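In response to reviewer comment 3 from the previous cycle, which asked for concrete evidence that the modeling workflow produces usable outputs, we include below a single protein chain processed end to end. The sequence was submitted unchanged, and the resulting C-alpha cells are shown without manual editing.
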Amino acid sequence: MHWFKSPAKINRFLHIKTKLPNGYHEIVTLFEKIAFFDRLGIEVEDDGKSQTNIACPDWLPKGPENLVFQAVDVFREKSGLNFSVLIEIHKEIPAGAGLGGGSSNCGTTLKALNNILGSALSENQLFQAAASIGADCPFFVSNWIGALGTGTGAELEDFPLKPNWYLLVLPDFSVSTRWAYENFKLTRQSDETIFEPRKVLSGYKWINDLEKPVCSRYPAVSRIKSDLLEAGAKRALMSGSGSTVFGVFDTKQQALEARVKLENKTGYRCLVTRTLEHDETV
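The workflow returned the following C-alpha cells.
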C-alpha cells in the first residue's frame, strides 16, 4: 500500500464578487496549503475490474457520496483504465472547518492514482477531473503552495507566498459551506470591499466576506479572532466558510506561546502549523 499526505488549506482572503445564475458565487480567494495532514493509503490491483473499497471513520460515507470515491470514478472515466482500489482514509482535518479536508482527499487521490498508474492523465486532465467534482479540488491536484482562485475558485494561478507560522483554533462545531454562502448578502461595493488581491502579500487586506453571516450565527468565531489578536497574532481570520480561525505569527515560538493562552481561554483544540513546503506535496 502506498501512503500519501493530504494537506489542509487556509484562505488568506476570500472576497465574494457576485452570485451566478447557477446558484454558485463568483469569488476571488488566495489558497494556501499548510502542514496539517490527513493520510491516504492507496492499494491498486490491475485486475480489469472497477471495484472501489473505502476504509474510513464511521462519520464519513464509504460510497458515492465520498469525494475520494468520486475521484476514483472520474479517474477511471478519463483514463479509460479499469482497476480495483482500496483506499484507507486516516482523518486529522475536521469536517466543516473551512480547511478543505474533503477536497484535499479528492485531489490527493487523483494525483496519487496518476503517480501509481504511470501518468495516465495529463496535468490539464487532472485539473478537469478535479473541477468536475468540486470547486476547491483543483487546487489540491496542483503542485502550488499558494494559488489565486477566481471564478468559483477553480480557475487558478500560481501565487508564490511568503511562509508564515499559524495557530489554528478548531471550534467544537462545524459550518455548512452551502449555508454560509446562502446567508451571505451582497451589497453595493464600498471602499471596504474593493481591493487589489495581489496586495495581500504585503498584508494590505486579510478579509473573509463569509465572516459576517458565520459570526452572526456563531459568535464564538468573533471571540476567537479577538483572543488571537490579544495573544499576539499579527492578523486573525476565519478560513473559508469556517469554523476554523487562524492567527498569523512570525515565529513558531510565538505561535506555541499563543496556543497555551487560547487553549486555556477557549477550551478548543488548537494547533500550531506553517506554510507547506514543496517537498511535502505528492
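The chain has two domains: 2-159, 165-279. We consider this sufficient to address the reviewer's concern, and the full set will be provided in the supplementary archive.
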